[in-house]
Write a structure and sequence with these properties.
The chain is an alpha/beta fold. The protein has helices at residues 16-24, 46-63, 93-103, 140-148, 176-180, 184-193; strands at residues 8-11, 30-31, 71-82, 85-87, 107-118, 124-135, 169-173. It binds guanosine-5'-triphosphate. It catalyses: a 2'-deoxyribonucleoside 5'-triphosphate + H2O = a 2'-deoxyribonucleoside 5'-phosphate + diphosphate + H(+); a ribonucleoside 5'-triphosphate + H2O = a ribonucleoside 5'-phosphate + diphosphate + H(+).
């Protein structure tokens, strides 16, 4: 790492939750949405899918930026692995109801792929964070009401930890930020792999 560079982080994600996690951690990320068509990734497991999409988002944004040695681009993608299936955002209310009816009282693993790349250095680091999520044994009425709120349709796995869905998650094993969409301790390790202390990204 060049110690005289004041690095800046570009978040290649439309996720307000991801940006809020960074802001809360002292990092004012610039947002450039990748616009990646997520259907292009055909991987059949959550680990590969989340990492391939995170990489694609970061690289798509990086490729369209002017060469700036201080710029770092972070792409993320979250999917839920549940009973052999890989769930992103539900396509419809009916799908969200079907998923919750299957998930209640059981657990799944939320995978968030993270890919970090330096624009000029070519340095890059990537990893997948995994968090086991134990779902409450919710009632049909609770499922109907939750889906009617619209929230499940906006998020990977059809649930949130920090929104209305928080009432329907009994406990988790692993990093909560990873469920919300970005794991800060994992980001710290990726930056360290590139010899960049996360503290160097803190707002002054
Ligand atoms: N607030 C909140 N958001 C969640 C949670 N779980 C998943 N999400 C969001 O669900 C979305 C997962 O879809 P992705 O395809 O990874 O990201 P996206 O929102 O489509 O945005 P891009 O990165 O631009 O593709 C992200 O916005 C996550 O932040 C949660 O527990 N809380």
């Amino acid at each position: 790492m060049q110690t005289d560079i004041a690095y800046r982080l570009i978040l290649a994600s439309a996720s307000p939750a991801r940006r809020a996690l960074l802001t809360g951690a002292g990092i004012d990320a610039e947002v450039i949405v990748s616009g990646v068509d997520e259907s292009v990734v055909e991987a059949d497991d959550a680990y590969t899918t989340s990492l391939a999409l995170a990489r694609m988002k970061a690289r798509t944004v990086a490729a369209n930026l002017p060469a700036d040695p201080a710029a770092l681009v972070l792409g993320c993608d979250s999917v839920l692995a549940f009973e052999g299936e890989v769930f992103g955002k539900p396509d419809s209310a009916d799908e969200a109801i079907k998923r919750w009816t299957a998930m209640r009282g059981k657990s799944g693993v939320l995978h968030t792929g993270h890919h970090l790349t330096g624009l000029v250095s070519g340095l890059q680091a990537e990893a997948v964070g995994t968090t086991t999520v134990h779902f409450a044994d919710v009632t049909d009425a609770e499922i109907e009401a939750y889906v009617a709120s619209g929230e499940p349709l906006q998020v990977a796995g059809a649930f949130t930890l920090d929104g209305r869905g928080g009432a329907f998650v009994e406990r988790i094993e692993g990093d909560p930020g990873n469920v919300i969409g970005l794991s800060l301790p994992l980001l710290r390790r990726l930056l360290a792999d590139m010899n960049i202390p996360i503290t160097s990204l803190w707002r002054r």
